[in-house]
Amino acid sequence: MADEILRLEGLKVHYPIRSGFWNRVTDNVKAVDGVDLNLKQGETLGLVGESGSGKSTLGKVIVGLEDMTEGDLIYQNEDLNSAAERRRVKYNKDVQMIFQDSLSSLNPRKTIYEIIAEPIRNFDPMDPVDEDKRVRELLDIVGLPQRTVFQYPFQFSGGQRQRIGIARALATNPRLIVADEPVSALDLSVQAQVLNFMKKIQKELGISYLFISHDLGVVRHMTDNIAVMHHGRLVEKGTREDIFENPQHIYTKRLLAAIPSVNVSERAENRARRKQIEQEFDDRFNEFYDGEGMPLPLVQLSETHYAALPKQSEKE
Amino acid sequence: MWKVIIRRLLIMIPQLFILSVMVFMLAKMMPGDPFGGLIGPNTDPKQIEALREAAGLNDPWWQQYINWIQNAFHGDFGMSYTMKQPVTTLIGSRMVNTFWLSLLAMILTYLLAIPMAISAARREGSWWDRVLLIYNSVTFGIPAYVVYLLFIFIFGFTLGWFPTGGTVSPSATGFFPVLMSKIYHMILPAVTMALLGTTAIFTYLRSGILDEQGQDYVKTARAKGVTENRVFSRHILRNALLPIAANFGFVITGLLGGAIFAETIFGYPGLGQLFITAITSRDYSVITALILFNGLLALFGAMLSDIIMAIVDPRIRIE
Amino acid sequence: MVGDDLLNANKVTVSFLIDGEWQTGIYDVDLDIAHGEVLALVGESGSGKSTFATSVIGLHNPNQTKVTGSITLDGKELIDLPDEEQNKIRGEKIGMVFQDPLAALNPLMKIGQQIQEALDIHDVYQKDQYYDRVIELLNDVGIVNPQRTANQYPHELSGGMRQRVIIALAIANDPDLIIADEPTTALDTTIQAQILDVLLEIRDRKDTGILLITHDLGVVAEVADSVAVMYAGQIVEKAPVQELFENPLHPYTRSLLRSNPKAEQADDELYVIPGTVPALSEMDHHKDLFLQRVPWMQDQADEDISDDLVEAKPQHFVRGNAWKTFEFQDEKG
């Protein structure tokens, strides 16, 4: 069993809603509402859900771009809830992020060299000769030619920019990378390139990924374990096989049924099954969600498999 | 919608309080007091002290502030020492002049700037666009008073087309001749101000139009079969005018603030000219009143802009 | 279900004026769409698929774009139509659905007004019918409370709702053809499925032809009747949907299908198409441009090939000769 690298316990991110005449806080948007999750060294955990499910917020909390309202973030068995504690263990050096939009996440006025060198300067300052060596080494790792080092982001294609983003994330030798929709903006052929590459560096460097995506085809390809998020909570988590072969929650079933299949001959059956599951989702919504429309607590089904099922199904 | 407006009005209460305190402190920091000017070699210091006491200048500062605010609420800002008139009367008569001049200048500015921006944006990159861009950066760059002096020299003194000072000709009698004479006196300063004042509106609107032209909803409108003219007026222009509309609150309250340089150079007795006169003669009570007045205008302008924005942009309306 | 020809595109070539030179963006495209047919035009970004759509509906900038060849809708030539006639076709005969549903709606106009504008321009519906028609349209695209939605602004709706509104706009005057340019790319998978359902329902009810532009092979497999694959401004393969997915011929189509992540081989490395798409200025459309990217096919990459596609099997058209001999490297004996 691999070592655990990160554990989240009861993580909540609530945003206040102000309304009424005096603009008082009347309610909270529960972007993330009590998520427990753990990630092992060298594993890829897929986090799936639709937009607004809270999956990106969760990713941002892990890298420290967003504060949690409540809960615990345990990194390598240390409780790191404050920024000071994170600085002490160099958490921000160990945990990096890859973004969806590679153009807007790279400073247009900085050269590739400056972009990749920046995290090195922040976390691991070295003399200019070593720094230059390191930057060029990173370019090699992501497969960009050395001559591009003084070019600007706009001079690259989408796939190349995404690899620059990866090089920047790798600059500090991170242990965990949060990848938020890293290939959604890319064409199929480029997507394949980036995904293969992410797997390759994982094998070589033993990095863990939290792979956030709405594309279940890509998630199936990339991940060992999957967590399905809806309305700020997890509705199901388990191994890839648990989720794809044996989904238990109606929302997971619905997500899976909506994946378009390239199997043209089964088109009609697929559609009929999808419609049936959509119907089931609507009909049984109240069984699977509480009075406020929030998913129920997770129930353990097997050693690896958890789902937010109603009490009766638990007994069944 | 009403909630937005009322809430916005309520926000103004603390703003007004802070403004009044700041102006009051400013007035207190100014050297001397109203009786300093009375001191001559033969004046008895006790007599001055008595006057001070009577005027409340020896009260604690908060007492003075309350008195000052109470008087201000009643429109009493004291007397101008140099012009020997109540400040309120002085400001009142100038305000009317300033208002009409600024209104005319503002209307002319919009009449110039909006068509300039539209015609430049619709022919982006053409020589006409370039001419207008150059014009607007030149008028923005050169000091306004140079142009004012030049225009008053050419059109006032040399050609004699327009009067070189005042608001109305002394020989005019009767409603209509007086009105015409007043407009005649305003034309040169107003036109000059408008010619020099187009840059902000022009730049905002031109770049707004260019931005909006590339938006997807414009493509949608074309795909619906909307004619090019209607695409422009109903879709592009409406969206591009939003920042102009937002700015309108400031512009309209700014009308009352007065144009310091233009009024002074064109010899037009408005608030701007009054301000310069008061500063050069250290007429503190007038200065204080004018600063307070302009501060109030700025606050109202901001409020008006917020309210206009809430009316024209549905995304800002809060349920 | 698929009826007579609705749209015929013949030898459509589009050039752009770039830095004072005309460069060919799409070359010699032939495409037909029948009444009631969903034709998917597939390709990666820069392949020219959106350029083709823009030329059909005439939304290109005429000063910087030159369209030659012939595009007819029910026999009526669309290329170089005067503006007034062009405006009559748009929105009345052809409706268009865009990728980003928020950007595609005017933020300052209520949904009802925006749909009404589409009705107002054309003479299909009369003024007193407008409101009922707006409600009917919103109903047709599956909006639960159409009266309420008609009175809302775009920012008050969810992404899926906005895309339904865009479709309602596109079908306002019962067009014969809908051009949907990446209509579900910005949407979640569950919403995507519903939006595609809406498009298919409209097709079934009104016998509308649909030109579906997408890069998503899954979407193609789910909804298209026939498929045209585009690479570097040319159609490289055209076939009925099942035929194309089961017997892809052109090396590009085969590579594309192979690089799509599949359930059965989840842990394998994905196939990566080598090389990159050539720049516009470097495209010689008389060659099979894809072969330039295939290191082991260089002997055929310089060969001039016919502009016309070959009918390799009935209804299955493919460009060039490489399909006869192409093998992936790992398949070679």
Automatic annotation (TrEMBL), chain A:
PROSITE patterns named in the record: ABC_TRANSPORTER_1 (PS00211), ABC_TRANSPORTER_2 (PS50893)
Keywords recorded for this protein, A-Z: ATP-binding, Nucleotide-binding, Peptide transport, Protein transport, Transport
Highest taxon of source: Bacteria
Record domain ABC transporter: where: 6-256
SMART domains listed in its UniProt record: AAA
Pfam annotation, one family: oligo_HPY
Gene Ontology molecular function: ATP binding; ATP hydrolysis activity
Secretion signal span: none
CDD domains on file: ABC_NikE_OppD_transporters (cd03257)
Keyword Protein transport found: yes
Annotated GO biological process: peptide transport; protein transport; transmembrane transport
Family as reported in the entry's similarity comment: Belongs to the ABC transporter superfamily.
UniProt-recorded name of the protein: ABC-type oligopeptide transport system, ATPase component
Provenance organism: Weissella minor
TrEMBL record, chain C:
UniProt-annotated location(s): Cell membrane
GO cellular component, one term: plasma membrane
Residues in ABC transporter domain copies: 7-257
Top-rank EC class of the record's enzyme: translocase
Catalytic activity: Ni(2+)(out) + ATP + H2O = Ni(2+)(in) + ADP + phosphate + H(+)
Membrane topology, as annotated: Peripheral membrane protein
Coiled-coil stretches: none
Catalytic activity, EC: 7.2.2.11
GO molecular function (one): ABC-type nickel transporter activity
Sorted UniProt keywords: ATP-binding, Cell membrane, Ion transport, Membrane, Nickel, Nickel transport, Nucleotide-binding, Translocase, Transport
GO biological process terms on file: peptide transport
PANTHER family with a match to the protein in the record: NICKEL ABC TRANSPORTER, ATP-BINDING PROTEIN, OLIGOPEPTIDE TRANSPORT ATP-BINDING PROTEIN APPD
Subunit structure: The complex is composed of two ATP-binding proteins (NikD and NikE), two transmembrane proteins (NikB and NikC) and a solute-binding protein (NikA).
The family this protein is said to belong to: Belongs to the ABC transporter superfamily.
Protein name: Nickel import system ATP-binding protein NikD
Organism, as annotated: Weissella minor
UniProt lineage: Bacteria, Bacillati, Bacillota, Bacilli, Lactobacillales
